[in-house]
């Protein structure tokens, strides 16, 4: 009979979470490399280059791939013949492993989990608790699958209760364009079909944790209906032309994974969960012999890609840039930013809006007139770092604040990831401002452009505090110009026409 020791289990969870924070799965690196090599869209190709360069840097430096180090999901299969040498419950042990991993002084991971979600939304400080699903199965081992799921991709989760005669493919093709680029494509779509609502959602999450093997399926051909669906959805989603980071291109998904389960005759539940370009998951089995051993990948698994500023790249001094200069920027243009910017995301925007509502001034040090604000919640620095990984968060969450901020502060522009909605685009056009996009999934690479960092306001918000960054040659793309033209509309439209793909079906 297998005996699993408490400390072995805790250490295995902690080690695995550290491991996936800086090592992409090999299959993901290979899939992005193949997509990069065949990509014809310059903007999408550059985005994938940044993702791959960032990935290698993280593997070398053992620092997080993305500043959003995720909420932890754990799938446990506990053998019926296992005995525990433990004083803690299984969920307690999982959470202790999470606590140790996220507080590791050599590689601090960002705490993003908030308690009292409908009330005070207080940060728990250690990224606990994890979301845990447990099954008891025959055997004498404990199998563990875990993932660190970023909020941007998790926010794009979709569920529908279709009629049995409805087309799953049609629903997917109608739904994926509504997800925008906040899930940081290229990535994986996990789909759960059948069961009940909650079963479909869990299956979709499980599917996200599987290895990328669509190329093998393409080579041998489908053996059942699920495999037929995988191939059809994979081809048709890529024909939408959404592309890397939503910029337009040949590759939107790297694979489509599907789990199914018997369901009621009157129902067809379908869940879809995307995994982003910072896909993080690991699988290990404990057999009583000690903690799990995860073998580091070889750096030879990463392509040797360099990224240099080309002739068409414009360098911008943020300390002297004018509204007239900003008006000359065009969608899809690459900029290298140097100078001073402020940061701020959801909680900071809410606080500033509340100050405006009360007729109060912004805190000292928060002067946004003719400045840029970067939507980011960075990881804490370690050793000699100025700041930890500091990639962009999804900009659409700030859309409802955009007009207010532009009107009240004289803000010149914003930096984030993914598209802006109609409300924000209208405000950008009205105020002759601009929205720039940094690559989601390249957080460590972005952090290397940050030369100085200090907190200037709302320190109690932790990673959501307002920082002042001094940057040098920070790469961004013009996503919405001062006239309100969005690359997230023009790019996919152009590439959908080039690919000859299917039209986007608008939701009713």
Please give a handful of descriptors for the protein shown.
single chain, fumarase, five-stranded mixed barrel, 508 residues, 3 domains, 19 strands, four-stranded mixed sheet, 60s Ribosomal Protein L30, Chain: A, globular
Any overview of this molecule?
It is a single chain. The protein has 15 helices and 19 strands. By secondary structure, the chain is α/β, with parallel strands linked by helices. It folds into three domains: 1-150 and 291-306, no CATH class; 151-277, 60s Ribosomal Protein L30, Chain: A; 314-492, fumarase. Helix 12 links the parallel strand 15 and strand 16 (413-416). Helix 1 packs across helix 4, helix 11 crosses helix 12 (399-409) and helix 12 (399-409) packs parallel to helix 13.
Query: What sort of overall outline do the alpha carbons produce when their principal axes are compared?
Result: globular
**Rounded Rg:** 23 Å
Indicate the structural class.
alpha/beta
Number of strands: 19
CATH architecture classification name of the largest domain = Alpha-Beta Barrel
- Domain count: the total is 3
In round numbers, the mean pLDDT is: 95
End-to-end separation in angstroms reads 57 Å
């Amino acid at each position: 009979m297998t005996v699993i020791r408490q400390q072995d289990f805790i250490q295995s969870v902690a080690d695995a979470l550290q491991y996936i924070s800086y090592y992409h799965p090999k299959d993901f690196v290979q899939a992005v490399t193949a997509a990069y090599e065949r990509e014809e869209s310059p903007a999408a190709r550059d985005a994938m280059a940044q993702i791959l360069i960032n990935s290698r840097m993280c593997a070398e430096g053992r620092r997080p791939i993305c500043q959003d180090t995720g909420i932890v999901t754990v799938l446990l299969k506990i053998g019926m013949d296992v005995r525990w040498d433990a004083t803690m419950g299984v969920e307690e042990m999982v959470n202790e492993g999470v606590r140790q991993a996220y507080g590791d002084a050599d590689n601090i991971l960002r705490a993003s989990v908030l308690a009292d979600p409908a009330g005070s939304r207080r940060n728990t400080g250690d990224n606990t608790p994890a979301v845990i699903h447990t099954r008891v199965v025959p055997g004498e081992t404990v199998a563990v699958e875990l993932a660190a799921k970023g909020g941007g991709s998790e926010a794009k989760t979709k569920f529908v209760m279709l009629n049995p005669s409805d087309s799953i493919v049609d629903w997917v093709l109608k739904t994926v364009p509504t997800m925008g680029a906040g899930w940081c494509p290229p990535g994986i779509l996990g789909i759960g079909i059948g069961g009940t609502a909650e079963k479909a959602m869990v299956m979709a999450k499980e599917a996200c944790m599987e290895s990328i093997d669509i190329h093998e399926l393409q080579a041998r051909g489908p053996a059942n209906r699920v495999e037929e669906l995988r191939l059809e959805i994979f081809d048709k989603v890529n024909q939408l032309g959404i592309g890397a980071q939503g910029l337009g291109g040949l590759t939107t998904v790297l694979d489509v994974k599907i789990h199914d389960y018997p369901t009621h005759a009157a129902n067809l539940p379908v869940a879809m969960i995307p995994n982003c370009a910072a896909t993080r998951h690991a699988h290990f089995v404990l057999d009583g012999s000690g903690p799990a051993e995860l073998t580091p990948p070889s750096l030879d698994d990463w392509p040797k890609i360099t990224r240099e500023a080309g002739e068409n790249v414009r360098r911008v001094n943020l300390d002297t840039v004018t509204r007239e200069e900003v008006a000359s920027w065009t969608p899809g243009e690459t900029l290298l930013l140097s100078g001073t910017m402020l940061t701020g995301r959801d909680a900071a925007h809410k606080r500033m809006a509340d100050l405006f509502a009360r007729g109060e001034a912004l805190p000292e040090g928060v002067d946004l007139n003719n400045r840029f604000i970067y939507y980011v919640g960075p990881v804490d620095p370690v050793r000699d770092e100025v700041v930890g990984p500091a990639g962009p968060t999804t900009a659409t969450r700030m859309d409802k604040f955009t007009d207010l901020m532009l009107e009240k502060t004289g803000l010149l522009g914003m930096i984030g990831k993914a598209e802006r909605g109609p409300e924000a685009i209208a405000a950008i056009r009205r105020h002759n401002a601009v929205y720039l996009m940094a690559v989601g999934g390249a957080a460590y690479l972005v952090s290397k452009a940050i030369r100085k960092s200090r907190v200037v306001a709302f320190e109690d918000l932790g990673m959501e505090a307002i920082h002042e960054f001094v940057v040098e040659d920070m790469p961004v793309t013009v996503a919405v110009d001062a006239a309100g033209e969005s690359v997230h509309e023009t790019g996919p439209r152009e590439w959908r026409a080039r690919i000859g793909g299917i039209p986007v079906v608008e939701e009713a």
